Batch of 4 targets.
Target 1
Amino acid sequence: MAKTILGKKIGMTQIFTEDGVMIPVTVIEARPNKVVQIKTQEGEGYRAVQLGFMDLKENRANKPTKGHFKRWDAPLKKYLTEVRLEEGEEYAVGQEVKVADFEEGRKIDVTGTSKGKGTQGNIKRHGHHRGPVSHGSKHKRLPGALAAGTYPSRVFKGNAGPGRMGRDTVTVQNLDLVKIIPERNILLIKGAVPGARGGIVCVRYAVKAGYPDDVRLAVKTEYIEEEEIIKETDLAVSEEAEIEEAPVEAEAEEEAKADDENEAEIEVAEEPAPVEAEAEEEAKADDENEAEIEIAEEPVAEAPAEAEEEAKADDENEAEVKVEEEPTAEEPADEEKE
């Protein structure tokens, strides 16, 4: 269970450290607490123990109180508190809880009854602001308006106003347990311990910060080391698994690669030549053959120069023929002479 003990607030004092630093502390006298009742899961529905503090005279106890302690064969105690048990914890009736069971330097929570302050105004009780202090304000420390008149025509419940202040159960968390004096049942606590002198307080390990800085650091360091060991172990296991799986993966990759190559060869062998490419080549070849045939059948066009020379030669031949056929002019003259 979380270490818990009932004690009595004695007052305040101060102590000095080895370095000469003064520490103000509250003195708590915590005489041994006795286990007066044990609650079980079968009986009460949960596991807990009841601790008793300070002896009670028999003539001060009524019959129900005497019956409660008689049932558990426990001595009469004036103040009682209950502490829940964790799994596996076992206590016996009459067992004592002492200040020696606590550790110096731990953070603790202290529960007690705060000082009663009687009836107080809303400024002291709730920290409200005061009104203006100029001449004629008439409400320097008064509560002021509480509600509208038409609607809701009443004051809502829970409004902060004047009333009884103090004498409430208060828990102050994360105080420092500076020193323990086992032979005198004394706890020296640094911080605001609730209650007046002579009040009963309940001291327990802090719920939110149960360890001092050095202890928390040691626990954190140990936790980090454990995490590193776990990580190293996981890394080694993963490397071994990778080493074991590497040949299998390599073989699988090689087989997959060989299968891909075989599939590619089969596709190349089975894939027919592209029909479109063959059709284009055949059409091109047909066009070339037709062009050659046309060129062979088409008469060769004579060059313009050769045509002109042939025409000129023909003209000359015709002229020569005409000259040969035309009778000469000398012949008539000769005939005339004759």
Note: The chain has a mean pLDDT of 82.
Target 2
Amino acid sequence: MIRDNDTLAALIDAIRRFVRERLVPNESVVADTDAIPEVLVDEMKALGLFGLSIPEDYGGLGLTMEEEVSVAFELGKTSPAFRSLFGTNNGIGSQGIIIDGTEAQKHRYLPRLASGELIASFALTEAGSGSDAASLCTSARRIEDGDGVHYLLNGTKRYITNAPEAGIFTVMARTDPADRSARGISAFIVERATPGLSLGKTDRKMGQRGAHTCDVIFEDCRVGAEQLIGNREGVGFKTAMKVLDKGRLHIAAVCVGVAERMLADALAYAMDRKQFGQSIADFQLVQAMLADSRTESYAARCMVLDAARKRDEGRDVGTEAACAKLFASEMCGRVADRAVQIHGGAGYVSDYAIERFYRDVRLFRIYEGTSQIQQLVIARNMIREAKT
């Protein structure tokens, strides 16, 4: 649902120019240094990128889902590392607070997330619980003493995006040790300086240099009861699933943007590269790869927009979000593969951006739920609907 077409068009135009003029020229800098220059981070804050989906009452832009994916299409046209830095503030790092947080929690954290003063992380995955998130082992033991009610968190979270930069973590922990199901899980807001919280070494990844992950370790980490999201135990897993539905649409939109960027680069290269006295873009087998990529990216864009509009209407889009994320992320991988093929040997060396993108986009088929998890979600929803 687009509230004001002129306002959205102005925002998208500003972001498109920022991507083209500031981010794209710095892609190699980020890849070489594994860091985003502070001057660019400051410009991201000034553009409001850290608060795109945070409600206006708390200092954000309050974009609807359709508006957000329209922006994500543009943000996807550069290195995914840039978007990753502020992506958690708009998605999994803030949405739990927005959806289920108390007013006190919202007023304490959302304005600082919207401004970029705070970076948020979402700590769900563990060494033994990734796709099977409900089997997590991190515990939160409730204690009442002279200082009031608090929880002691113990456990280790793995592959946590933006953890090295984060000021707060939304942490999923088991408050009911007797209940090994999802009902025993609660969500906490844990600040970086909380005693008992420490970080592992930053992971060395296949791609997405400049976007950092690491382990988050809790050792008798004492968290006040007021940090329990919504002041309710046992609803943390439900909060996580609500957050992931929205996140899957956002990632699907980013996949579309990246695919369109890779395709534009491949087309430009094909038109410039000469073989047998003509541009390789004139060869039908190259044209087939270009055409297939254009068709699939267009289909993914349509899927994302359709699902976003349904979500804005208040409809349950669990199936549609999973479909969009599955198709868009797999499509993005296929486009990357074709783009490398079109570049030939040049696509295998780092002089061309496609070598980096080929590695970067592989992650899209893993996080926010692997492709196989999306298949299970879709099929199970189909079966459940057929039984009603």
Note: Residues 238-387 form a domain with the Butyryl-CoA Dehydrogenase, subunit A; domain 3 fold (CATH 1.20.140.10).
Target 3
Amino acid sequence: MGEEKRSHPRSSIPWVGGRYRGELKGDVPHGQGMLILPSGTNYEGEWKEGKPQGRGRISFPDGAVYEGELYRGKRHGYGKYYKPDDSVLTGLWEKGNLVKLLGEEESSPYLSQQEKREVISINKLTFMYKSGNGVFDLDFAVENGEVFGFLGPNGAGKTTTIRNLLGFVKPDRGGCSVAGLDCWKDAPKIQKQLGYLPGEMAFFEEMTGTQFLNLLTTMRGGRKKARLNALLERFELDLSPKIRRMSKGTKQKLGLVAAFMHDPAVYILDEPTSGLDPLMQNVFVELIREERDRGKTILMSSHNFEETYRTCDRAGIIREGWLVAVQNVHFLKGSQRKAYLVTLRSTSDLEHLRAAGLELGRINKHTVEVFVSGNYDQFIRALAKCEVLGLDVVNQTLEQVFMKYYGREAALE
């Protein structure tokens, strides 16, 4: 028995005195969405039957931010509260009140905005192809020293966004900038300074790897021999063969060396680990972490979720050209519904769980997958009335978090 498919149209509607934008069930908020109130309070995350419920975030008018579990619009469960006085409280909440303090930190990532600087800025960017596909009203930024993951399957709009950042196409509306330079007007300056890896690389196939890198060095007007040699050793790259004789993985390593060898301050990488074996993927992850520690700014498109979790600070999720979420990667990883496999004694126990209003997934005889978002009391009370033979936690991946935003029907390529 498969999970019932639900229709979640996206819309923008007035709601409780504010404006809600997101998924609906019928004519009420249900799914992923954001409510902006005139008071300055914003609710973002999971909604159920018109109320914020599940994993979410509340931004308050005084600058405070709560990230964690919500129940009927109130802080309820595990969460973090980023206070205006630059401190962070981690604890358990009940009906909006802190009932158990689990930890306290001195600094909040939301408060030192004046110390941050937007290096890559995308403002209401819209670019449409004749087919009607493209990107629409994109609005996000990558800060100095940040690794930003840009997630989505092929065709979602990742490469189109990058083509705008490189100045290869002119936006229909809005715009973008890199290091304060307009991506369309100042494209040559940006391209000269940037570390760029395209998703589909084109080489001079009759050149050797050495000849190709020498050409790039001449065009950039400088050589950093020690850095080049370190990268060649790191990626175990032999430059002597002609490029046409290189495998896909070797060409990918050549592209990475070309992007990193001049030690730029900003990188834009489109599917950087495509074609790399697991060992070289680990080498790449280590390199990204080192570059971040050196203060480099990196935008990295990917549909490799584990790679994103290991390297990125924040991630944006794009769906059919629309940005559907921008979140801290660790928050994304922690935001998935918890899944449990429950083995029951009888069919009547299974029917009881169904009648209790729990969200059920796959069912195999007397074993059922149960999804829980925030309200554990309901789950525990329902189990207490059943004869439970087994209970296991199902480990979920960042890919499953993505599918929550993108829809279960999406097929990742």
Note: Confidence is low (pLDDT under 50) at residues 1-7, 108-115, 408-413.
Target 4
Amino acid sequence: MTIKRLALAVIVLIGMAGLGNNVAHAASLCVHPAGAGRCFTSIQAAVNAANASDLISIRAGIYVEQITILRKNLTLVGQSGAVIQAPADMEDTLSSLTGFEGRPIILVSDADVTIRGLRIDGANSAESNPFLEGIAFINAGGEIRDNLVENIGFGEPRLPIIDGGPSYQGDAIFVVNFAATPRTITIAENRVVNYNNNGILVDAEANPNNPAIANLTAHVVDNTVIGLGPNNVIDQWGIFLGGFGFADPQFSITGTLRGNRIHDQVTIAPHPLPGVGIVTFNNYNVEIVDNEIENVNIGLSANQASSVQITDNKISGPRQEVTGSIGLLVSGRDIGITENRFNKLEIGILLLVEDPDFGSAVNTALDDNQFEDLAVDVLTGSISLNVATARTTRIWPKLPHH
């Protein structure tokens, strides 16, 4: 090495050493039920002590607590056997953020957070914990991956009546962004079972001060969502991805719905509304690809979609004798429907035309779809049962700007 290069190397090393005194390095914190290894005994205590970008390792054990993460980017990783269980008496931690009641087991707001490898158990405690939720991201982004979320509800189908009307509650994973800051969320490889209402709900609400700003990109991939099966009490949804109040569909919500497995969203008479595998609303440039949807009243409802590709999905109808089963219900424009398989349904694809709520399916391309054991392969017309309206009107009825 020449003297010039040696001198340059020394200068660079000195400069890096000087920078090291001013750069905060991410730390690793641990949680153990008994405090072994100088770990925290509660996850919330570790969250409170952590600095931005720290990793919190949660060791095997049952942690009966609510966790709130506000304005702090963190990573929470559960080791095998780490369980977070809903307390018998939970606090309403949503009202101060959203203006409406909610009791999430894990709440994240105004941050980018990763939650991975945890078992989230609601303990079927919605009777004593109204508006129980599993994991809630409010105006937040990050990653929710490889978790088991279970028992988020009453333990059986239940539709409580509050103030004279039905109250849908019991969402396992839900994400909503109504702030101006754009967020990206990845929800992947999770297993959701035994929930009351929605398995995974992702919602973008326009900022009223500027409804022309796109604010949420969502990738919902490789999740398994299993409903409660046939019931005449509540119409469950597996996955919801929607946007509301935007100036144009391209400013709404975008991303991917890929490789998800959704089963057993079935309602039977006399319940008036159907269980649905996947519901999308006001999506822009979303790929809905390679999803398996089985034993449902309606497989996929894609309303007011724009530049959406629906490809290589497998949709099978209810195993029970029910009426009105539909594989795919579509409205919007510039939609590609390709190489999907439909089985054991009354209607394979329903293309809406002049529907009073959702308009028409305009410039829709159908190519190489397969139909087996159907009464009607493809049908056009309006739908008297307003599948999306009946439910989207109650998803976020009390957001501050509504």
Note: DSSP finds four helices and 33 strands in the chain.
